[in-house]
Amino acid sequence: MVEIVWTEPALSDLDAIADFIALENPVAAQKLVRRIFKHVEQLTEHPKSGSKPAELEGWNHRQIVEPPCRVFYRPDLSYVFILHVMRSEQRLRASKLKRGSGGES
């Protein structure tokens, strides 16, 4: 079993998405945040269960999808580092992951 570590940038990403949704529907924003945390929590038992993002070929990063979001993470032996959360329709920029990935490219 591994420990989940949310990076500050990932939490900020999730907060921004939830704040935007809450402008129109606060209940939907709360439900989305709960679903994401529940989905991420499953990584404690299955840290490599997420798919490898096509945009990050060759990196040791994975993603889980909880519509309308993608959650990017990096597993290692003892931890899963949650690095970035974004809306699915947005284009991923690898620079978003470098800030919390230990400089991996």
Outline of this structure?
The chain is of the alpha+beta class and 105 residues long.
* CATH class value: Alpha Beta
Broad shape: globular
Taking Cα atoms only, what radius of gyration do you get, to the nearest Å? Answer: 13 Å
Structural class: alpha+beta
Q: Estimate the helix proportion, in percent.
A: 25-40%
What is the number of helical segments per DSSP (H or I, 4+ residues)?
Answer: 3
How would you characterize this protein structure?
With 105 residues, this protein is of the alpha+beta class. It has a single domain (3-94), classed as 2-Layer Sandwich (YaeB-like fold). The chain has helices spanning 8-24, 26-41, 95-98, and strands spanning 3-6, 62-66, 69-75, 79-87. Strand 2 and strand 3 form a beta hairpin. The longest helix is centred in the first third of the chain and has 17 residues, at 8-24. The termini are far apart. The model is unreliable at 99-105 (pLDDT under 50).
Strand and helix layout:
Elements: E1 3-6, H1 8-24, H2 26-41, E2 62-66, E3 69-75, E4 79-87, H3 95-98
Parallel strand pairs: 1-4
Antiparallel strand pairs: 2-3, 3-4
Helix pairs in contact: 1-2
Note the main attributes of this structure.
35% helix; 105 residues; 4 strands; 24% strand; globular; alpha+beta; YaeB-like fold
